[in-house]
């Protein structure tokens, strides 16, 4: 008795697309992942983020190398507008000129890098995963286990890694600007006052503030990009339901219309999320310069 082959259900399709290509270096095996699992390395997020980071640096390097004092081309003009925007935002929150020499280029890099990682969501949902599945099958493996997620910022480990890097930068400037003793005194004297009985409460509030800012910084970017990725998957399911019937044709038309509308709207989302992450980075570093 034979069973007819059939495609995956909607739940199976989405579940498959939410799996990361992971590597457990202790077990030397590729394993199925979950949305949040810090025991394994998400190879797809690592590879795509590194490649896109290198691409962002290449764009900035090329713009700087091709810059002229005459009438700028469109690419140079776009980069100059972006650089001036970031620099003006940095001047508004970081008043230390020496610090801005490092933080402004860093904020520009963060914006471009996160924008490129977010923009991976604009690719067709099955484009790169299908190609990876074919390569995986050609290597003699089961294509069903060929997991691949192409949006690094829809991975919580990526966004929390970025926000943790911002936290470390803030700690660096706290110590650099205020001195180790000055920052230590601030940790136990703000926000309630310098009375010795208030030191434990002040220190606890400071730790909560650092943790809350770091977690919310990473979660905000992750939540928006993960939700956008899910919407694209649901829209893709509409196109996958095409049949020669009124319902099937209607779903196919809805797939095209909904995909187009959501893609156009998502251009704003990916740009806005990159800008918000960059601005929060500047604000947090600026706060590290301020004494309580």
Descriptive overview:
It is a single chain. By secondary structure, this protein is an all-alpha fold. It has one domain (10-289). The chain has eight helices and three strands; from the N terminus they run αβββααααααα. Helix 1 packs across helix 7, helix 2 crosses helix 4 and helix 3 (74-93) crosses helix 4. The radius of gyration is 23 Å and the shape is globular.
Q: How would you sum up the global shape?
A: globular
**Secondary structure: number of strands:** 3
Q: How many individual helices?
A: 8
Structural class: mainly alpha
Pattern of helices and strands: HEEEHHHHHHH
Return the domain count: 1
Low-confidence sequence ranges: 1-5, 27-37
Short description:
This protein is mainly α and 292 residues long. The protein has helices spanning 10-17, 43-65, 74-93, 97-119, 127-138, 156-189, 199-240, 246-289, and strands at residues 22-24, 29-31, 41-42.
């Amino acid at each position: 008795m034979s069973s007819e082959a059939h495609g995956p259900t909607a739940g199976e399709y989405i579940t498959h697309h939410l799996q990361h290509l992971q590597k457990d270096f202790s077990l030397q095996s590729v394993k199925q992942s979950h949305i949040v699992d810090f025991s394994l390395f998400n190879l797809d997020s690592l590879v795509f983020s590194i490649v896109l980071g290198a691409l962002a640096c290449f764009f900035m390097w090329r713009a700087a190398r091709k810059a002229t004092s005459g009438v700028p081309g469109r690419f140079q003009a776009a980069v100059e507008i972006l650089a001036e925007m970031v620099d003006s935002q940095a001047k508004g929150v970081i008043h230390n000129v020496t610090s801005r020499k490092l933080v402004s280029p860093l904020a520009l890099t963060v914006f471009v890098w996160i924008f490129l990682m977010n923009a991976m969501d604009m690719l067709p949902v099955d484009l790169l995963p299908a190609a990876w599945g074919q390569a995986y099958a050609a290597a003699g493996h089961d294509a069903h286990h060929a997991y691949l997620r192409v949006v690094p910022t829809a991975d919580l480990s990526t966004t929390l890694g970025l926000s943790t890097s911002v936290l470390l930068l803030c700690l660096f400037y706290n110590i650099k600007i205020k001195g180790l003793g000055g920052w230590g005194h601030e940790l136990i004297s703000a926000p309630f006052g310098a009375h010795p009985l208030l030191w434990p409460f002040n220190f606890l509030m400071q730790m909560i503030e650092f943790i809350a800012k770091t977690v919310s910084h990473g979660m905000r970017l992750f939540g928006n990009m993960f939700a956008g990725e899910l919407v694209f998957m649901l829209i893709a399911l509409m196109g996958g339901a095409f049949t020669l019937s009124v319902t099937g044709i209607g779903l196919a038309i809805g797939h095209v219309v909904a995909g187009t509308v959501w893609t156009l709207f998502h251009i704003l989302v990916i740009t806005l999320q990159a800008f918000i992450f960059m601005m929060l980075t500047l604000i947090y570093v600026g706060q590290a310069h301020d004494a309580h």
